[in-house]
Amino acid sequence: MSHLGSHDEREERATPTEGPRAAGDPVAPKRRGARRREGFGRAGVIAASVVALALAVVLADARVDDARYPRAALAALPSGAGLFNQYDWGGYLIEFAPSTPVFIDGRLFPFVPDVLEDYRAIVSARPGWEDVVARRGVRTMLVRPTDPIATRAPLRGWRTIYQDAIAVVLTK
């Protein structure tokens, strides 16, 4: 009989009398340290990401392949405002010609919509491009030889002060 008595005691201890489990709700009991293990998982992912980023920076080639950029034309650029530049070269110019502010660069968001539309009007030599140039204070243009403005601007009094296969520098 003592055996039955101990069985009943175990059953009573195992049956909750309060809380959600007493009502038959299958809620798992909270475990200590469970939250800490989740945090460690996130911290591990963050740490691995930081290590991967640092490794990528260390292993990356720091040199810019400037074969498609107007490196040789930089010497012909005047310092100060008034430059109209090819869209694709803006970031390059920010880095390698910091004393000459760019008209536009790859960060599209500061230039939408007016500057981008003005850029298109000038580079394409659309009707009214000269008005846009005057309104924007453009004194120098750094464009590709294949851009329509590179051939039309000289017909309107702009001087070519530099030209190669990559770039043309025009000044008024």
Portion in helices: 40-55%
Task: Choose one word for the global shape.
Answer: elongated
- Secondary-structure class: alpha+beta
The profile of the biggest β sheet is: 4 strands, mixed
Strand content: 5-15%
The N- and C-terminal alpha carbons lie at a distance of 112 Å
Protein model, in words:
It is a single chain. Helix content is 40%, strand content 9%. With 172 residues, it is α+β, with helices and mostly antiparallel strands. The chain has 2 domains: 58 residues, no CATH class; 106 residues. Helix 4 packs across helix 5. The protein is elongated and about 85 Å long.
Can you describe this structure in just a few lines?
The chain is an alpha+beta fold and 172 residues long. It is built from 6 helices and 4 strands; from the N terminus they run ααβαααβαββ. β3 and β4 form a beta hairpin.
What topology emerges from the helices and strands here?
Blueprint: H1 2-14, H2 34-59, E1 83-85, H3 90-96, H4 114-123, H5 129-136, E2 140-143, H6 148-152, E3 159-163, E4 168-171
Parallel strand pairs: 1-2
Antiparallel strand pairs: 2-4, 3-4
Helix pairs in contact: 4-5
Features:
alpha+beta; single chain; 172 residues; 2 domains; four-stranded mixed beta sheet
